[in-house]
Amino acid sequence: MKESFDQFVKDTVDCSRDQDLFDRFVAYLEQTYQVDLISYHLLSTNLQAFARADHPIFHTFPDEWVKVYLNDDKFEIDPIIKLARTQGAPFHWFDVSKHLSLSDEQKRYLNELKNEGFVDGLAVPLFGPQHEIGYIGIGSTKRKLALNEAELDMIHHACYQFHNRYRELVDREQQKERPKLSPREREVLHWVALGKSNSVIADILEISEHTVDTLLRRSYHKLDVSNRIGAVLKGVGYGIIHPA
Questions:
Q1: 3-state SS track over 121-168
Q2: Which one of 41, 64, 160, 215 has the lowest number of neighbouring Cβ atoms within 10 Å?
């Protein structure tokens, strides 16, 4: 039985943690539209003082694919993300060629998505105040997404509900008393914000990679987050770090 949109909205309002909010969003989309691939990016926003739009804040994509996407800088050639920056309405991933003239590299990227088993997908651009741009990717490894206009509208509304509620939670966290990170924890978080891996940070600070991991996990706990992007967003929001 498909869940009502009104119930989904009520549940998101009741969520007090960003991870719980994303989990609720995923459950709604999976149950209502039978999708299994979801990612959330902030492409341009005053929440980000660092240029890491390529990193999804949350995702349900295979970890190996995300690793390849990041390590091979596929974000730089991804035509879906490029179109999402200017397109006001949701569009299907593999319809991007109807809107853009694709390079050979971009065509190979789309073929790679298909070869990875991503059968179909929907790109949902999100626009907010102060030139804010968010993006949610919704896909399936099982079937084509045969969605009518009413269903596309409801998905668009659900994405905006998630995005706006996420912003509310982040804004609320920024207004709380600033967590106290140790000087070393702040150093590690600073380098994370600049896109450095744990091994590189270990070399820079002349400490072990295990120590970097421990310091980062302590920061997660103090900031009440579950991943690197969340930690950096809150670190910047609280004024704990100032990546340039």
A1: EEEEEEECCCCCEEEEEEEECCCCCCCCHHHHHHHHHHHHHHHHHHHH
A2: 64
In the DSSP assignment, the letter for residue 42 is E
Q: What is the pTM of this model?
A: 0.71
Q: How do 91-92 and 120-127 pair as beta strands?
A: antiparallel
C-alpha span between 59 and 138 (Å, rounded): 10
- Joined together, the tokens standing for residue 107 give 């065509």
- For residues 206 and 197, the answer to whether their CB atoms sit within 8 Å is no
| Tens digits of pLDDT across the chain (244 residues) | 466 899 999 999 999 999 999 999 999 999 999 999 999 988 875 444 433 555 788 999 999 999 999 888 898 899 999 999 888 899 999 999 999 999 999 999 999 999 999 999 999 999 877 677 889 999 999 999 999 999 999 999 999 999 999 988 877 776 667 788 999 999 999 999 988 999 999 999 999 999 999 999 999 999 988 899 889 888 887 888 887 6
Query: How many whole angstroms separate alpha carbon 54 and alpha carbon 92?
Result: 19
